[in-house]
Design a protein that fits this description.
Length: 312
C-alpha cells in the first residue's frame, strides 16, 4: 500500500511540475532557479499522525468522561465527529478545461488537505466544550487543537457556560500546539467546572432548616459558601475549616503507563475534632477509583461537609 501511495504521489508531483512550467514565473527569477518540492513521504506521515491524534484525543476524553460518571455526573458524555472525504461533483471532474484538475488530481489534492476531527464533550450540565483537531501538512506536519465553549444542556446560549468565567480556553487561532497542552487545560478546567456545579448544592443544603449543623445555637451563623481563590474548591467563608476540594492529575502505574485520577476531598470540624471524607475516581478499570454500587459520590461528600455529619 505504501509503495502504491508513493507511485501515486510521484505521478502527482510530476503533473504539478508540468503545470508549474507552463505558468509564467516571477520576472526576477530564472526558470532553472525555481524550486519545486516533491512531497512524497510527508502526506503519508500526515495521515498517520492524524489517525494517531484521533485515537489519543478520543482515549483522553473517554477517560475523563468515565471518571466523571463514576463521580456521579450521569450527563458526562462525548461524541466524535470525523468528517468523511467529499469528492468534487462529476461535472467538475469531466470538464475539459486545462485549468481543472483530473479526477486523480482532485483525489490527491483532497488527501493532501488538512485533516479535521472534532469532539463534543459534556463535562457537567453547565460545562460543555468542543475540541477541534486539525493535522497540518505544511509547514509542519503536526496536529493542533482548539477548544470552543458550547451552550449548557437545555440551553442555546454559550455565554451561560460556567467555564467562560472560571477557566476560559485559549482563543488564539493556533490554539493548543499538541495533546499535552490540551490535557493541561482539561486537568485545570474540570475541577473548576465541578466547583461551579456543586456550589449551588452547598448553598441549598445550608439554607435548608432541616440540615442543621452540630454547632451550638449561640455559635451558629448562616454559612456563605463561595469558591476558593484557585477556583477548584468550595468553602464556607464563615468557617475557615469547611471545604470541599477537587483535584485531577495524572499518575504513573507500575508498568510505566499513565492514568488519570480525580480526588474529591471534604474537611470540617465537629467541635475541636477534624473530620475528613474523600474519594478517588480512576480512569483505569480495577484501579483505586474503580466504580462500584457503594462508592461514595461527590454529592455525598458535599452533604457530609455542609451538614457536618457523615453521609450514609
Amino acid at each position: 500500500m505504501t509503495q502504491l501511495s508513493l507511485h501515486v504521489l510521484l505521478s502527482f508531483a510530476h503533473r504539478e511540475n508540468e503545470v508549474q512550467r507552463r505558468r509564467p514565473g516571477p520576472p526576477h527569477q530564472r526558470r532553472h532557479e525555481q524550486h519545486n518540492q516533491y512531497h512524497l513521504i510527508r502526506p503519508i506521515i500526515s495521515r498517520a499522525i492524524h489517525d494517531v491524534s484521533v485515537r489519543q484525543c478520543t482515549r483522553l476524553v473517554g477517560d475523563l468522561v468515565r471518571i466523571l460518571r463514576q463521580a456521579g455526573i450521569e450527563e458526562a458524555a462525548f461524541t466524535l465527529n470525523n468528517p468523511q472525504f467529499v469528492l468534487p461533483n462529476s461535472d467538475a471532474l469531466t470538464s475539459t478545461s486545462s485549468n481543472r484538475p483530473t479526477a486523480a488530481q482532485a483525489l490527491v489534492n483532497l488527501l493532501l488537505a488538512p485533516s479535521d476531527f472534532q469532539l463534543d464533550v459534556t463535562l457537567t450540565p453547565r460545562a460543555r466544550i468542543q475540541i477541534r483537531g486539525r493535522t497540518w501538512f505544511l509547514p509542519l506536519t503536526t496536529t493542533q487543537y482548539q477548544v470552543h465553549l458550547l451552550p449548557p444542556l437545555n440551553s442555546t446560549d454559550a455565554t451561560q457556560n460556567s467555564l467562560l468565567t472560571s477557566c476560559p480556553p485559549y482563543r488564539e487561532r493556533d490554539g493548543y500546539p499538541d495533546l499535552q497542552s490540551l490535557k493541561v487545560y482539561l486537568l485545570t478546567a474540570i475541577p473548576r467546572a465541578l466547583a461551579d456545579l456543586y456550589l449551588p448544592l452547598a448553598e441549598s443544603l445550608s439554607s435548608n432548616p432541616s440540615q442543621a449543623t452540630s454547632e451550638p445555637a449561640e455559635e451558629a451563623s448562616d454559612p456563605i459558601w463561595v469558591k476558593s481563590v484557585r477556583g477548584n474548591a468550595i468553602q464556607d467563608s464563615t468557617r475557615d475549616a469547611r471545604e470541599v476540594a477537587f483535584e485531577l492529575d495524572e499518575k504513573s502505574n507500575a508498568d510505566g503507563s499513565e492514568r488519570l485520577t480525580l480526588k474529591a476531598s471534604g474537611i470540617w470540624y465537629e467541635g475541636s475534632e477534624a473530620r475528613t471524607k474523600f474519594e478517588h475516581f480512576d480512569s483505569v478499570p480495577g484501579g483505586e477509583g474503580q466504580a462500584s454500587p457503594t462508592k461514595t459520590k461527590i454529592k455525598d461528600i458535599i452533604e457530609a461537609v455542609v451538614t457536618a455529619t457523615e453521609a450514609v
